Amino acid sequence: MSLVVIEVITYLSLSIIAFGVCFAIQQKYPITWLNPLLMTVVIVVLILLSLDVSYAEYMEGAQYINYLLEPAVVVLGYPLYKQMPLLRSQWRKILLICLVASFSA
Questions:
Q1: Residues 61-65: contacts with CB within 8 Å, 24+ apart?
Q2: What would the pLDDT profile of 40-71 be if each residue is shown by its tens digit?
Q3: Would you give the DSSP letter of residue 83?
Q4: Residues near 21 by beta carbon (within 8 Å), at least 6 away in sequence
């Protein structure tokens, strides 16, 4: 197998396994900060830092997961659209949360 194929399999597996583990943990302990997406990012970043792997190198192998996630994000727009009345009624809270999150990031 070529090195590129090995990288793709390794980095895709890392992302998918980390998400699966985090999802199982969140199902067992339904705590907000145990969000599977957040925890997957934290775990993958920690692993990449500990192995001294650059983000560019990781993305070369994990680019295919990006191709699958982009359409999924677009598909999530429809349920969001269906919640427009709720979003309109809560716009002040949403704006405040976005501001706090922006400053904390």
A1: 61/4, 61/7, 61/8, 61/9, 61/10, 61/11, 61/12, 62/8, 62/11, 62/12, 62/14, 62/15, 64/8, 64/12, 65/12, 65/15, 65/16
A2: 999 999 999 999 988 888 888 788 888 888 88
A3: T
A4: 43
For the segment 1-21, the average pLDDT, to the nearest whole number, is 84
Phi, psi of 29 (to 5 degrees): -125, 90
Give the separation between CA 40 and CA 19, rounded to whole angstroms. 5
Helices then strands, each counted (H, E), the chain: 6, 0
- 3 state SS of 79: helix
